[in-house]
Amino acid sequence: MDIHEYQAKEILAGFGVPVPRGGLAYSPEQAGYRARELGGEAWVVKAQIHSGGRGEAGGVKLCRSDEEVRSYASTLFGKNLVTKQTDAAGKGVYRVWVETASDIQQELYLGFVLDRKTERIMIVASAHGGMEIEDLAEDDPESLRRMVIDPAVGLAEYQARELAFSLGLFGGQVAQMVSVLHACYRAYRDLDAMMVEINPLVITGTGDLVALDAKMSFDTNALYRRPQVAALRDPAQEDPREATAADNGLAYVGLDGDIGCIINGAGLAMATMDMIKLSGGEPANFLDIGGGASPERVCQAFRTVLTDRNVQVVLVNIFAGINRCDWIAKGVVQAYKDVGLTLPVVVRLAGTNVKEGQEIVRASGLPIVTADTLAEAAQAAVAHRCTPVAA
Predict the structure, then answer these.
(1) What is the mean pLDDT of residues 1-30?
(2) What confidence tier does 246 reach under pLDDT thresholds 50, 70, 90?
(3) Which pLDDT tens digit goes with each residue over 82-117?
(4) Helices 295-306 & 240-247, crossing angle to 10 degrees?
(5) What does the pLDDT read at residue 270?
(6) Catalytic residues
(7) Residue 387 — very low, low, confident or very high, per pLDDT cuts 50/70/90?
(8) What b-and-e string marks burial along 151-169, b requiring 16 or more CB atoms within 10 Å of the CB?
(9) pLDDT tens-digit series, residues 23-51
């Protein structure tokens, strides 16, 4: 789960990371008031969306009067900001962050990520910040410093100092960097984060370190024990289909195809999408209904898939272990009644109670296309696109 920049700054500030003074605004007038409230001679107005590259897309601007703040904010609200990290539709801007301008002398990059190879938290840092880490890795890979943290020990003091020295810091800046590193590590560890990124972490004219931008993402599977983090979710920044699915406990990712998929198990879902592609089709989504799915849950999965108007056929592929094929079959039949299905449905069942499930499908009298293998199911789904169900 991603959060906004201002939310990440509030979290990191609570752990001891220095950030500029700022305020949130939900209207142009409020943005101008925030500038007057903060005081000073210059402010930075930032569109709050879940994406990097906002500056290049026109979502960040330095303003030198509260009227300029208000005027610029008015161009952002209600706008869909398209960056190199969003799709063509972009992300809607419904709030802006106004903060005091900083005297920037140098920009650094600092990130905490999960390194799956070593199964450790890794710090990635560079003396050249202010640009995307992907571009930095490509244009100046030698500038990147990497350090792995042993979870049994945590971030050691000598590691933090070593990293600070490698970035060219000296004097009091080293102590500040050590403090920032420990604060970011605690935030990452204590809140089940997947990423903590400060880009740029700037050195000001007075030699102080300040987090000018911040980004955090969290392990969705751990949100049940982090209610304070879960409360920061912004559904307006998510794909509406994915937001609806998440609200109903379904693992769903929207894609660009026209074959809706309802499958149990992430591995089987990936294999099914591959088979659809191999058969000449395009999957419209990834959807894992999970284990022990009731007929009601299957019916909800149909509702979720059908929120995508590009879907022309639905493929149900179940290999039941914890699940039961008869539950799935009842859910498919119930979906015809409750959802009012008019699209063709292809069903492939295997595993626990498969005979009972197949009998439920046959006895329903509904125009459900059945298949015995994954390959047959994928081919049938491709063949039945744009074929309306007979009334």
Answers:
(1) 96
(2) confident
(3) 998 888 889 999 999 999 999 999 999 999 999 989
(4) 170
(5) 93
(6) 109, 197
(7) low
(8) eeeebeeebbbebbeebeb
(9) 999 999 999 999 999 999 999 999 999 99
CB 261 within 8 A of CB 287: yes
HEC-encoded secondary structure of the chain: CECCHHHHHHHHHHHCCCCCCEEEECCHHHHHHHHHHHCCCCEEEEECCCCCCCCCCCCEEEECCHHHHHHHHHHHCCCEECCCCCCCCCEECCCEEEEECCCEEEEEEEEEEEECCCCEEEEEEECCCCCCHHHHHHHCHHHEEEEEECCCCCCCHHHHHHHHHHCCCCCHHHHHHHHHHHHHHHHHHHCCEEEEEEEEEEEECCCCEEECCCEEEECHHHHHHCHHHHCCCCHHHCCHHHHHHHHCCCEEEECCCCEEEEECCHHHHHHHHHHHHHCCCCECEEEECCCCCCHHHHHHHHHHHHCCCCCCEEEEEEEECCCCHHHHHHHHHHHHHHCCCCCCEEEEEEECCHHHHHHHHHHHCCCEEEECCHHHHHHHHHHCCCCCCCC
Across 181-195, 222-236, 247-261, 349-363, the highest mean pLDDT is recorded for 181-195
Tokens coding 5 = 């920049």
Alpha-carbon distance of 375 to 276, in angstroms, equals: 8
